[in-house]
Amino acid sequence: MHQFIDRQTSEIKDEVFYGDRFIKFIYSTTRENPALMYNILTSKRLSKLLGFFCFDSFIGSKVTRTKHFISKLGINYSECLDNPKLFDTPRKIFERKIRYWEKRPMPSDEAVIVSPCDAKVLIGSSNIISLIQIKNKFFQYEELIGYEKREWLDAFRDGDFAIFRLTPEKYHYNHMPVSGVVLDIYEIDGCYHSCHPEITITLCSPYSKNKRVISIFDTDVEGGSHVGLVAMIEIVALIIGDIVQCYSEERYDNPQKIKEGMFLRRGQPKSLFRPCSSTVILIFQRNKITFSTDLIKNTFNDKAKSAFSRALNMYLVETDIKVRSPIGTAVNMEKQ
Known about the structure:
This protein is an alpha+beta fold. The chain folds into two domains: 14-94, no CATH class; 106-335, no CATH class. It has helices spanning 20-26, 34-41, 44-55, 58-64, 66-73, 90-94, 100-103, 131-138, 141-145, 150-156, 197-202, 293-299, 307-312; strands at 3-6, 12-14, 112-114, 119-124, 161-166, 173-175, 180-188, 212-218, 229-235, 243-245, 263-264, 269-273, 278-284, 289-291, 319-321, 326-330. Strands 2-1-15-4-5-13-9-8-7-11 form a ten-stranded mixed beta sheet, with helices on both faces. A three-stranded antiparallel beta sheet has the order 3-16-14. Strands 6-12-10 form a three-stranded antiparallel beta sheet, with no helix packed on it. A hairpin with a 5-residue loop joins strand 1 and strand 2. Helix 3 crosses helix 4 (58-64). It is globular, with a radius of gyration of 19 Å. It starts with a strand and ends in a 6-residue tail after the last strand. 43% of the residues are buried.
């Protein structure tokens, strides 16, 4: 059992995993030739093939039974921008647009950092917990950022972070958590491991082994969030074959590929994950952000049964969070 805390109600809820048997089959060590099967099933080619079968093909849409699928996932029709009757394949469901300007209100204070996605979030702060054990289980820092990226490795070392785990029912656009100028954006190739909590714990730092896009922002600019440098790492997962960079200054209009030198506004759509589950990691420079009190409290909840808590022998509980909702506030460096 893996539980999380609903931020809006503070209730402890059980997570229902889509495709749980299939995922555990892939990572099972009891099958013949497990290493061979493991490598094949987490490869780019097969991940794309599975994605096509499950989300695009006529067979896949019939097998999944789209209307039943929507009902099971509990997707809210009322927030969708397009008519739900047009969602005749699972891919269209996963790549849906919402009226985020109405349904995902955002604090007006630019110093408030917001969630980049609808997700279950886990925070790591040097001020509240030892980060070494968490980092080494979820990601290997140098590998995650890129061994050759010395400037960024030095800038974010010992910094605070937040891990956002998207599950299949979630809205799959990522939005800007801060306002700032793009200093760098690059891709690192890799595998397509599942983001299932039990798989994450079983594997060694899976997030730093998957294909990912890293964006570096300077927020200490005019109109910026003034929280120093921020790294946003978008990570693929099993069946997720692509991360489409499609920044829109207004709603979803005129999407643009992100380039160095662009100024991106907090709360605006930045990218789109191709369907299923995936992960976003935000890394902040040390002592630049104060995380929201409720997220800190939820992390140490001793009532929720979390796979992370069991494996690491410490309280480590996720909070279900909405895109554009606050996760923390920029520290006023003048008062330090």
